[in-house]
Amino acid sequence: MHRSVNKKKRLFPLAAVSLSAALLYSGLYGGTTVRAEAASAPAAPSSAVSSPSAAAYKAFLQSQYQIELLAAPTKGEFIRDVAKALKLRGASAGENRFNDLKPEDPAYAAAQALAEKGVLSGGTLQAAAPLTEDAAVYIALKAANLKELAYTYPEAKIQSALRKLGIDYPGNPKLSLQAAQELAAAVDTGLLPAAWHSSFALGDAASGDFAADLLGSVLSFKGAYKHTIGSVADADIFAKLYQAYQTQDLIQVKELQAVVDEALKQNLITGYNLKDSRYSANFDPKLSLTYGHDDITHAVQLIGLLRSEGLNAKVQLEPKTSAFVYLKEWGEPKQTDSYKVVQIENGNYIAYAKEYDIAFEFDTAEQKAKFQNVIFQYAKKNSEDAKGLIASSWWQPLYYSLTPMDTYKEISNNKLTAGHYYAQTFSLSAKITEIASGLQKIRPDAKVESYRFWVDEPFYNYLLGGYK
Fold it and tell me: For the chain, which residues make up each domain, given as ranges?
């Protein structure tokens, strides 16, 4: 991956490093950017036919929501987990909708929040009782916003769906019409995965795995599970990649740019990225890497390269806009739909360029570890006349992990958020406090999140000021 020495392009948002690195910054990385309002919405994973394993859902719930499902959850514990996954916060004050709950009960706030959303009906909750499979389905269906669909079900459709569970209807004393409709819709939509159909029984205690599958399905229906355009092995992944890229435009967020553009002017940072969290992959950090570039041909060849090396991964294209200082001595900048400049007080410009991140979630940790060997051999430029590399390879490829990796180097990020948009700037860890403080001085009410992560050594060397 060579970052071509084109002074009108650059790649990734870096934080303040040495002056020599700052001068090199614009020439090493190519540019691209995104306007999220115009970009297509992130693809939600399909949940109607097949579902991830309970283990995958459990890992996701733990990493994204800090939810630990017990082997035999109570109804109250499941209610708390549902409310947490839906990011609902119930108030302890106000009307108590449940005659067997007190404000000090662990499930109280979550139950009130779910009742406000129509997921629970009020009355008697029995929070301490074991969670039953049918109760879990009724809660999950309403949490997934499927109840209106369920209540369209006539008797014939109910019979057809419940037959898959081995349940006769009508005539079952354990099923009201509403309960039967909800259960039938859960079967037809896949909210209740097919893997549970043969063992499902009304009144049986739900296991942690059963609860995990239902809760994961709820997140899928809400568009809050993993976002992916496909997998490396998919026959149509290249078409989907192109489509996702071509529908992206520059991201422009005035509220955020006012802060980080001022940081650029003050030389606090040498660049930054703008991204949209609605496209975030939400992949398992232990299995995932994020890879940044600006050339879609490179992305296509990279996926083909991974396939040829026997590596498979889920793929999500995350739109990204990079911003950096364009020096006036470089000449009059040429603007396009994917490359804009704005002149600043000293005669220089701030350039905004369209780029992308590809998030990969590999099938195994071993495949994640092997990724670097593939990049070093086929996608990293080591000489001006390098041969046998994929298109637009850079001297310093950029990819990083949120979990430690052997031979990777720790760096840091300062991230500012405004709604679903965020600006981020990468730096050496020694600079993280200085940059965070500087951003707070520019905007005292700015929400700055600072954290450390792990990047490939060539990019780390770039932050040190190295060109190759």
Answer: 19-42+227-463, 54-221
